[in-house]
Amino acid sequence: MAKSLLLTGYPGIGKTTIIKQVATALGDRAGGFYTEEILGPGGRQGFMLFTLRGKQAIVAHKDLRDAQFPRVGRYGVDVGSLDRVGVRALRRAMGEHQIVVVDEIGTLTLYSRAFQDTLMEALMGRYHVIGTIAAGPHPEGDAFRVLAQVEVREVDRRNRDGMAERIAKWVAANVTGERPKGGGTPGI
Fold first, then answer.
1. pLDDT value of position 186
2. Residue 182, class by beta-carbon neighbours within 10 Å (0-12 exposed, 13-18 middle, 19+ buried)?
3. CA-CA distance, 174 to 186, in Å (whole number)?
4. In angstroms, rounded to a whole number, what is the distance separating the alpha carbons of residues 47 and 139?
5. β-sheet bridge partners, residue 48
6. Whether residue 1 has pLDDT greater than 90
7. Band of the pLDDT at 173, cuts 50, 70, 90?
8. DSSP single-letter state for residue 15
9. Which class in CATH covers the domain with range 4-174?
10. Would the pLDDT of 166 be above 70?
């Protein structure tokens, strides 16, 4: 039985919205982070990371042009900010025995070796992870998909409504050990 759940799906399908709903429902039982677009004149300017404890950091932005920032499309990636804020939030969640929430296992976050190592530790250890992973193939990201303790579910237009509630039932059955009425293990 899987102890961690990763949602996948194409950009804009609602994965982050679902993760935020799940994190809100879990309250103090969850720690980690989610990401959101930074919008401005001319559309998306970059990406902001928000921890479940209220900290935030810009992890990618079109104005990060220095050679120290790896490029993903038109965005420079601030790996240092990701490590200082995002990886620290994951480590804190692990240290406090919370459910580890990680939104956006993808090209931006996978530039960080510390992120990769911390996520693998969480997935391979005694921790429960609920997160999102990019839909397309990615050599480093694919390593997380194939772990036996990870269940991967695709989010699409047909199943996204009510997904947060189904995940809450999955958490009850797979993390807290509660059994749903009527028996069986709830599906996502």
1. 54
2. exposed
3. 9
4. 22
5. 36, 58
6. no
7. confident
8. H
9. alpha beta
10. yes
Written as six digits, the tokens of 40 are: 């401005």
Token digits for 159? Answer: 């199943």
Neighbours of 170 (CB within 10 A): 21
Strand order in the sheet with 129-134: 71-72, 75-77, 56-61, 43-51, 30-40, 99-105, 129-134, 4-9, 150-154
15 within 8 A of 157, measured Cβ to Cβ: no
- Ranges of each domain in the chain: 4-174
CA distance 185 to 188: 10
Q: CA 162 → CA 165, 167, 176, distances in Å?
A: 5, 9, 20
Q: How confident is the model at residue 179, as a pLDDT?
A: 58
Q: What is the pLDDT of residues 64-74, one digit of tens each?
A: 999 999 999 99
How are beta strands 75-77 and 71-72 bridged, if at all?
A: antiparallel
Quickly list DSSP for 79-129.
HHHIIIIIIHHHHHHHHTTPEEEEEEESTTGGG-HHHHHHHHHHHHTT--E
d(CA 27, CA 11): 26
The number of CA neighbours under 13 Å toward the Cβ of 71 is 7
Say what the pLDDT of residue 31 is.
97
What global pTM score does this model have?
Answer: 0.91
Total residue length of the chain: 188
Average pLDDT over all residues of the chain: 92
